[in-house]
């Protein structure tokens, strides 16, 4: 993310998203009733009467919309910001009508808020510092393979295949089946590096991952050189990748990724709750009570709760987050795109780590 200009005195910041992670960040930051300016196209008809619709033409123009909803279209890698036009050139006659801004990578936009929260500014500043490409993670064993890109917003599954290999007593058939699986896994890995060209980490059970690395060295030595780490896990497929995230074995490779910090925070909440400790709580009502006592050290909320809250609920959340920060606490937004976010969602989407136990 590039930050081109900031004027918090007037509630304004101008940015340019550079990575897919940046669209995730903007999806969490842009909220209902914010004003967003961006370059867009709009059909305009000039003149007082429009007897012939073909007279209309589409022009490029910068407009401002008061946001009603935001949707992250991951299939087309864009953010759709829908709202009512509140600022536009007079001659296009667009004031008060609905419009959707399509925010893509390298599209400058200006966001104006009545009040910027610290966590929102922190997210933008982190995104501005982040220049790391995604990490490609492959989990492979005798049950199949899974290839995923670990981005800041979570785990993006690129390919997954389950297989049933012949038993070890059928050595010839098993070798042929393994070879076919390796060919398929290699194609998936090549496709992954085309869409997210980054370093590769290989995970797996037993000796299958080692055999695949030998296969890779023979068939694609240039791809083998991109592998920066090889780790053993106890679970197959996608579950093995999540296990690696939870256990921290990917921490070195993902030191710049938000997902590690989010997973650690959620796991700490679950550990405290599971141990019957009183220094963690969940649910909006209980968290609000803890905030009123000045007990909240870290407030966790899913991005889904923020995106899908009604206007009045969003105002309450805004006040909660502001109070947490004013009392020296930290606000952390957890993406539901990965396992930790799904776990927090099962707790209602809101939880808190406390400075001291409360009853």
Describe the secondary structure blueprint for this structure.
Layout: E1 2-7, E2 12-16, H1 20-29, E3 35-44, E4 57-73, E5 78-87, E6 98-104, E7 109-112, H2 118-129, E8 135-141, E9 144-151, E10 154-162, H3 171-195, E11 200-204, H4 208-219, H5 221-224, E12 227-232, H6 237-247, H7 258-274, E13 280-282, H8 284-292, E14 296-302, H9 303-308, H10 311-326, E15 330-334, H11 339-346, E16 350-354
Parallel strand pairs: 8-11, 11-12, 14-15
Antiparallel strand pairs: 1-2, 2-7, 3-4, 3-7, 4-5, 5-6, 8-9, 9-10, 13-16, 14-16
Helix pairs in contact: 1-2, 7-11
User: Which fold does the CATH topology of the largest domain refer to?
Assistant: SH3 type barrels
Helix content: 25-40%
Number of domain modules:
3
Shape: flat
User: What would you say the CATH architecture of the largest domain is?
Assistant: Roll
Termini gap: 43 Å
| The level-1 CATH class of the largest domain | Mainly Beta
Keywords:
single chain, 359 residues, alpha+beta, SH3 type barrels, Nucleotidyltransferase, domain 5, 60s Ribosomal Protein L30, Chain: A, 5-stranded mixed sheet, flat
């Amino acid at each position: 993310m590039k930050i081109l200009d900031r004027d918090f005195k007037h509630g304004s910041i101008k940015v340019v998203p550079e990575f897919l992670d940046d669209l995730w960040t903007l999806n969490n930051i842009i909220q209902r009733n914010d004003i967003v300016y961006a370059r867009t196209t709009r059909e305009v008809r000039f003149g007082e009467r429009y007897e012939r619709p073909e007279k209309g033409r589409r022009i490029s123009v910068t407009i401002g919309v008061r946001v009603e909803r935001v949707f992250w279209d991951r299939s087309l890698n864009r953010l759709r910001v829908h709202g009512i036009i509140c600022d536009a050139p007079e001659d296009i006659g667009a004031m008060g009508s609905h419009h959707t801004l399509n925010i893509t990578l390298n599209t400058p936009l200006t966001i104006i808020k009545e009040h910027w929260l610290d966590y929102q500014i922190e997210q933008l500043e982190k995104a501005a510092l982040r220049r790391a490409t995604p990490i490609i993670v492959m989990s492979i064993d005798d049950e199949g393979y899974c290839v995923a890109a670990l981005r800041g917003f979570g785990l993006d599954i690129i390919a997954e295949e389950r297989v049933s290999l012949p038993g070890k007593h059928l050595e010839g058939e098993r070798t042929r089946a393994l070879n076919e699986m390796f060919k398929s896994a290699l194609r998936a890995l090549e496709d992954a590096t085309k869409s997210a060209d980054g370093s590769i980490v290989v995970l797996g059970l037993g000796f299958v991952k080692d055999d695949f690395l030998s296969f890779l060295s023979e068939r694609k030595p240039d791809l083998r050189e991109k592998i920066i780490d090889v780790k053993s896990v106890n679970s197959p497929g996608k579950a093995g990748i999540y296990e690696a995230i939870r256990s921290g074995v990917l921490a070195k490779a993902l030191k710049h990724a938000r997902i590690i910090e989010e997973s650690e925070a959620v796991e700490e909440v679950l550990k405290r709750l599971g141990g019957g400790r009183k220094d963690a709580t969940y649910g909006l009502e209980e968290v609000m009570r803890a905030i009123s006592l000045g007990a909240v050290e870290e407030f966790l909320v899913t991005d889904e709760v923020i995106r899908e809250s009604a206007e009045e609920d969003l105002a309450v959340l805004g006040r909660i987050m502001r109070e947490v920060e004013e009392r020296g606490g930290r606000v952390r937004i957890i993406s539901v795109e990965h396992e930790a976010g799904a776990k927090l969602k099962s707790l209602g989407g809101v939880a808190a780590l406390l400075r001291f136990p409360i009853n």
